[in-house]
Amino acid sequence: MISAVRLRRLAVLSLVTLVATAAWADDVPWHGQFVTPPVRAACDRTANLSEPAADVPTPAEEQALKDCDSVTLYYGVGRPADPVAARKCAYAESGRGEGGPSLAGDPVLAMIYAHGRGVRRSYGQAIRLSCSASWAEAELDARVAHLLALKANPACSGPRSGPADEKGGVCAFDFCDDITSGAMGGVCSDRDSRLAAVERQGRLGALQAGWTPGQKTAFAALTKVMEAYASAHGGNETDLSGTLRDAFIIEAEDGVKAGFEADLKALAAGKVPAATAADLARADEALNSAYKAAMSHSYADLTGIRPQGIREAERAWIVYRDTFVRFAAARWPSVSPDALKAKLTRDRTALLTELAGQ
How far apart are CA 92 and CA 90, in angstroms? Predict the structure, then answer.
């Protein structure tokens, strides 16, 4: 019995074949003006390849995979990577007909075939999938040229992946390596953020070893408040000009989260900079000055930054700061609350000063 995915892909293949026999209509993505002749030829050669029948999920598997996430399975986000499950899931996703920039579906399949992870390596399949799934012409050209270079490299010709295929290796290929579009930039930034979040969660989990249940509960509440501030900062204090706006927001949010982790580690090590009540008062004065400057600054040449958004982020930060100080006083009573509050205040002042371009 042929699965629904298989039937849909055969229909697409038939359509591609008809187009090919008509000397390739110019509406195929790899016939664009920014695609070089070698890449165009490679896409033409591979467009009629059919996927290996054994690699496609059975009808029962496809039904079980209706809610799967091939990106999570391929990269191992919060779980061990599983290239076989990722492949079957990606084939199921490819049949859903979902549009828009994404790593799910054909991009995951391209990476699987380029490395031979759970399948026999096939640069032909990787090229075919990259030709049809790339979001921008320049991106398509760079990505397929990358695959052609790997195919020509004897070190990358084995049927299965090896050490050279790992991240940073001479045969490594990732769909995010060759991005040129802002849309895919946001998708890849989101992927990186998800992977970083899992790693950060593991480190923060290790930091909580020996904490009481009450401290862990209070920390969960603090984390929620921190994430609210990170979201307010990313959405309201980030220049959203250009097509990389999604990537910029994610970068800003991850900056807050990284700072949070660094502060926690410093507290655990007893390395918070010393500060007196007078120091805190001066830090507050500097913050108020920076806030007023940020609120009165003209952001006419920027997109997404407005005084009302800065006010929203400032309020979220105040809740975060006060919650953090209360938590730290309970978890590390030897740490001066004034010292921690002054440190957090100086960090916020630096951010606002940069925001206003001072």
Answer: 5
Structure token digits, residue 338: 């004034």
User: Residue 143 and residue 131: Cα distance in Å, rounded?
Assistant: 8
CA–CA distance, 179 with 175 (Å, rounded to integer): 8
For residues 303 and 230, which has the higher predicted lDDT (pLDDT)? 230
pTM here is: 0.76
Q: Which of 186, 191, 283 is nearest to 234 (CA)?
A: 186
Domain boundaries, the chain: 4-165, 182-355
What's the CA gap between 106 and 110, in Å, rounded?
A: 6
Taking the C-alpha atoms of residue 277 and residue 323, their distance in angstroms, rounded to an integer, is 19
C-alpha count within 13 angstroms, C-beta hemisphere, residue 53: 5
The predicted model gives 326-346 an average pLDDT of 95
Does position 8 have pLDDT exceeding 60, yes or no?
A: no
> How wide is the angle at C-alpha 350 spanned by C-alphas 349 and 353, nearest 5°?
85
